[in-house]
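Ligand-bound model needed. heme C.
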Amino acid sequence: MSEKRIDEQSGTEVTGHEWDGIEELNTPMPRWWLWIFYASIVFAIIYAILMPALPGIDSYSKGVLGKSDRVEVVEELYKLTDQRAVYANKMLSADIETIEGDEDLLRYALAAGESAFGDNCATCHGTNGQGLPGYPNLNDDIWLWGGSYEDIRQTLNYGIRALHEDTRVSLMQAYGRDELLTREEISDLTEYVVSLSGREADASAIARVSTLYQEQCASCHGMDGKGDRLQGAPDLSDNEWLYGGDRATIVETLTNGRAGVMPHWKERLSPDMVNSLAYYVHSLGGGEKSDAPTQ
Ligand code: HEC
Ligand code: HEC
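Prediction:
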């Protein structure tokens, strides 16, 4: 071993390595760095004893504390599912007052309903339920079949003209195609329908078919055109249209009939989900009160 020598310029010890007159200095590590280094080693040893750390052939060291992130995640998930199950269970039997009286349940119903709406309903009714011709707007207070929580549940469970024996059914016949009415009668009735919503129409045409309207149409749409929810017959007097209120569309409706199909969801969604959806739709703006009790 060569003798320790101090470099004159820097005042630091040299290692004794030298290349063409350039000497290597033996600068020690800073104190603070060394302390962190030793502390890390101590920490690693303690950690390896307490926590799962060392890999084995087909297992691993479980650690004295036996902790596992995976187990914790699974436990958290179970907790969440349990919480959800509690709300889902409540949704099975809750009537609208119960839902609105329970802040957490209400939040659950809206969140579950909104997400299920996006998955199942938005394709036909639009992202915000705003509707399209033939697909009713669910935000307004105009209802074909009814806008109470119970009415909406009924519509969702069994559908409209759907493949379920309890589905809502009604008929807007193809009066032209099936030759129940002549072209002239359809043309005159179109003027009559236009006039029902307070718009200007041909007075002589209206006079010609006012009896025909009462005979053929009033049983569903009402004498004054106000519609009938028991038959899903739209109000023709409010100037809000499912298919369209211009003359060409009315002629098309009368000629070829209309039969919008709303699928039934009873077998496809769980009962609590149907209820959450019904509550969500009810909350969109057009929800109506009802005194009928929920089953
Ligand atoms: C395949 C297209 C389609 C899908 C999907 C669909 N609907 Fe409908 N829905 C319709 C049609 C069409 C009608 C109108 C039926 C009629 O003319 O009477 C309707 C009617 C309704 C009504 C009755 C409105 C009223 O005025 O009485 C409600 C409520 C409703 N849908 C909610 C939903 C919800 C909630 C979903 C999702 C679970 C959904 N719909 C999915 C097509 C659809
Ligand atoms: C048996 C009941 C029934 C009778 C009778 C009936 N309708 Fe309808 N009508 C309906 C139903 C139900 C709808 C909605 C169909 C749907 O939702 O797809 C409808 C829809 C319409 C629409 C479309 C409304 C809109 O908002 O776009 C018009 C217009 C109409 N009917 C006019 C008539 C006229 C005129 C007559 C008489 C010739 C008549 N209806 C007879 C049940 C009836």
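The first strand starts at residue 14 and ends at 19.
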